[in-house]
Amino acid sequence: MRKLGAILAGVVLAASSVGHALAQDGEPIPVLVSLPITGPVAAFGEHSRWGFELAFAQANEAGGIDGRPIAADFEDNRCNPAEGVKSVTQALSQKDYVVVLDGLCSSATLAIMPVIERAEIPMITANASATAIAEQSGVGGNKWMFKVNPADSGLTEAIVAWLDKEGKADKIALLAEDTDFGRAGSDGFSQALKKRGLELAAVEYYQQGTADFTGVLTKLKALDPNSIALYSIAADFQNLIRQYFSMGMKTPLTGRLILSDVPEEILKRGALDGTTTVQPYTIEVDTPENEAFVAAFEAMHGVKPNLLSFESYETGRLLVDAMERASAIEPAALRDAIESASYPSILGTAIEFDDNHLAHNNAVIMRVTDGKVEILGFSGT
Predict the structure, then answer these.
(1) Domain CATH number, residue 223
(2) Are 312 and 127 in contact (CB under 8 A)?
(3) Which residues, including other chains, have CB under 8 Å from residue 318's CB and lie 6 or more apart?
């Protein structure tokens, strides 16, 4: 487990599907994964699924868990709390799963948490970022819930600390989707700035599916902030960036931008130069372990990974490690093994959980310069 680079480089990806590799003949280990397979962020769900599939394919090709393959069932939560609760509840009533993974969207994850607590089955979210998830887990109440992705509060503290070090933390406006993700970003920025005697110059929210951002962008342009912290994802994000570009706005952006989702023609023309952002991962991380991960991911799926597939991959590998250490492959024993995890991350730290069952992996600080993404450094969360 600890020789991650060797595992990645040597993996055989010939298995036709997760859970059906030729290396095992034991009873499959059932794992439930809740993702937005359809709906507005289905592309994110797809990448998250691919990350889990790579992690489990590697484990199964290596012999599984004592000869038992990991078999993942993927359920669609549509990034919707009600759909998440319905699909997970139904799935748990039909099969004896040993663990639930992800949720991906913070609102769906928060809604699913009481379901897994009542069922007394561990859940690990790879990508949901809302600070409230950790606040309600471990000593916060739900002992069955774990969170690998750094909380929004940790990520905003990392980016604000970096901006403050560069003298760029004043007069920041914030534009966010009106979801748990967007409001967690707003709260995180407000708290991080308050610690430094600063405050947001403005806070604007929009509803998911908004077609026209002209009004709010005009308002922010007139305010003339030093930067705009943006919390937006998927199609809304691309639509917003295109309108930002068409309006000729030059205000640098910050916050949680997924730069790989920026239309390439806009990025290359330098429209986002000066943008400084924070994410749990970027493909540009220059380590042998990341190089091997990217190569294995491309070999299996034909595309490069992004931060969602990375977080799901690391969560999947952490789960494999917990299964190997657990006294039994059943929910309570797995929960104990997950809680005591110390798994080596591709980013060079160990994934371990605090009292709130939150991991504190490195955050990557990036900037856009001359139309290209550069890594400025890493910051703890």
Answers:
(1) 3.40.50.2300
(2) yes
(3) 124, 148, 338, 341, 343, 351
Residue 22 · residue 15 · CB < 8 Å:
yes
Single pTM value for the model: 0.82
Closest CA to 150 of 373, 366, 291, 345: 345
Residues 227-286 pLDDT 10s:
999 999 889 999 999 999 999 999 999 999 988 889 989 999 999 999 999 989 989 888
CB 338 within 8 A of CB 146: yes
Return the structure tokens found at 175.
Answer: 């534009």
Q: Looking at the domain assignment, is residue 337 inside a domain? A: yes
Task: Answer yes or no: do 83 and 96 share one domain.
Answer: yes
Exposure string for 167-193, b = 16+ CB within 10 A, e = fewer: ebbbebbbbbbebbbbbbbbbbbbebb
Question: Is residue 10 domain-shared with residue 104, that is, in the same domain?
Answer: yes
Is residue 68 within 8 Å of 28, Cβ to Cβ?
A: yes
* 71 sits in which H/E element: strand 70-76
- For tokens 């059906």, the residue is 20
Query: Which DSSP helix (H) or strand (E) runs through 125?
Result: strand 123-125
